[in-house]
Amino acid sequence: MIPAFTFVQDVTRPVFDFAKTDLFNKLEKWLILTYLVLFSRGIVTLVMTGGASEGGGGGEFDYGFLTLLWLLNYLITACLCVLKWDAIKDRLLAIISSNYFYWVFLMFIGLSTIWSEKPDETVKATIGMGGTVLFGSYIVCRYSIKEQFNLLVTFFSIVLVSSLFFMLIPGYGIDFAKHAGAFRGIYSHKNIFGPIMSMGTFTFLIYSKTNFCVNKKLAYLGFAASFFMVVGSRSSSSLLYTLLLIFLVHAIQVLRLRGQLFAWSLMALASLYFFITTWQETIKVTVLNWLGKDPTLTGRTDIWDVILDKIQERLWLGYGFDGFWHGIYGESFYVRNAVRWDLPNAHNGYLDLALEIGIVGVALLMLVMWISFVKGLAILKNDFSWPQVWPLVFIFYTLMINMSESSLANQNSFQTIMMTIAFTSVSLEFNKYFKATAALPDDLPSAQGELVQRQL
């Protein structure tokens, strides 16, 4: 055994030595950026379909190549964890020990195999979810909050530049069939491009306010270009959410000046939220008529009525993760038959998650979001910094976008990677700022109380 172990050490030592070089770090960064584009469904999907458009007469496509690329990502991420273990182990262990409810949520996804209507699909989807979360966690372990933010800015810059290039190619960057003239950039549909650019808009806006922004003019250009792309995508929901998020960022900038004012403002925002929730039907019809949209959200609400019936059948635990939407071969056949539409999902992230893992699963994820949001607010009140604002704005973005799209806790999803980054980075920063309180000696209660008051 000892000679064999020595042989393995001798063989792998050059690899570990190379992993410590600047060249490896640069290659690692560009590999991560490449996979972020892939997980966002950019370029590869559009090229594989030959620029096929909804309503353009395109047929079925084989996405097996994408599956291979995702499996390769899981393997590469695992290898990177081994190669960079000394650099990431402390942050990784801190993430594991401070995100209990997120891990419970992920374990619940795996347990849904037991009651799933499609256990084989649930197993595969669970593996995909694990690989996706691992990739997001590795990014947080590997890079500081500032480096993560710079990585996101680079990603959205790549999306913007490459989208402009694809828009010059007929039949690719600009839709030509059902949504003729709508921008879709490097993506296969405007409703993928719109939300991505919405996220890019508030990311560039926050970046322009940081003290490490290299060029504010370029940051504002990125903000303006992203907003222009949202408008060009003709996704009215993305435009509405983008405007609300821009308002939120500016509101945070104003309200951060006074801690008490900040607290009262949060209460006002909560009251506004409950008002909108109470009068949502009247507000919805008014706003949608103003936007020139069907009050049924292009038939979505009709779909949701049917889906709610299916949710009632398995209210608590659902049909298993990725156990519902399988065309005529799954429980989705009932919905498809009722609405006469071959649906890929519910066009609502909350309903899709309830279908898959019931209201128990939805409640777990909402609890994780709430905990992360409260921790994020505590961090900002203790030591305000713009990079720390991004996770909070992203949580708002996720809550809003999933009212009309399905991007809540999906495997092999850019949104899931961003969600993991938001949750885990907030927990790490929270521990950094507040662990001093827990470390105070028991015989210094007055000092402990003083520190708590100062931090809160």
TrEMBL record:
<feature type="transmembrane region" description="Helical">
    <location>
        <begin position="63"/>
        <end position="85"/>
    </location>
</feature>
<keyword id="KW-0812">Transmembrane</keyword>
<dbReference type="GO" id="GO:0016874">
    <property type="term" value="F:ligase activity"/>
</dbReference>
<feature type="transmembrane region" description="Helical">
    <location>
        <begin position="350"/>
        <end position="373"/>
    </location>
</feature>
<feature type="transmembrane region" description="Helical">
    <location>
        <begin position="92"/>
        <end position="115"/>
    </location>
</feature>
<feature type="transmembrane region" description="Helical">
    <location>
        <begin position="127"/>
        <end position="145"/>
    </location>
</feature>
<keyword id="KW-1133">Transmembrane helix</keyword>
<feature type="transmembrane region" description="Helical">
    <location>
        <begin position="220"/>
        <end position="249"/>
    </location>
</feature>
<feature type="transmembrane region" description="Helical">
    <location>
        <begin position="385"/>
        <end position="403"/>
    </location>
</feature>
<feature type="transmembrane region" description="Helical">
    <location>
        <begin position="152"/>
        <end position="172"/>
    </location>
</feature>
<dbReference type="InterPro" id="IPR051533">
    <property type="entry name" value="WaaL-like"/>
</dbReference>
<dbReference type="InterPro" id="IPR007016">
    <property type="entry name" value="O-antigen_ligase-rel_domated"/>
</dbReference>
<dbReference type="GO" id="GO:0016020">
    <property type="term" value="C:membrane"/>
</dbReference>
<feature type="transmembrane region" description="Helical">
    <location>
        <begin position="30"/>
        <end position="51"/>
    </location>
</feature>
<keyword id="KW-0436">Ligase</keyword>
<keyword id="KW-0472">Membrane</keyword>
<dbReference type="Pfam" id="PF04932">
    <property type="entry name" value="Wzy_C"/>
</dbReference>
<feature type="transmembrane region" description="Helical">
    <location>
        <begin position="192"/>
        <end position="208"/>
    </location>
</feature>
<feature type="transmembrane region" description="Helical">
    <location>
        <begin position="261"/>
        <end position="279"/>
    </location>
</feature>
<protein>
    <submittedName>
        <fullName>O-antigen ligase family protein</fullName>
    </submittedName>
</protein>
<feature type="domain" description="O-antigen ligase-related">
    <location>
        <begin position="222"/>
        <end position="365"/>
    </location>
</feature>
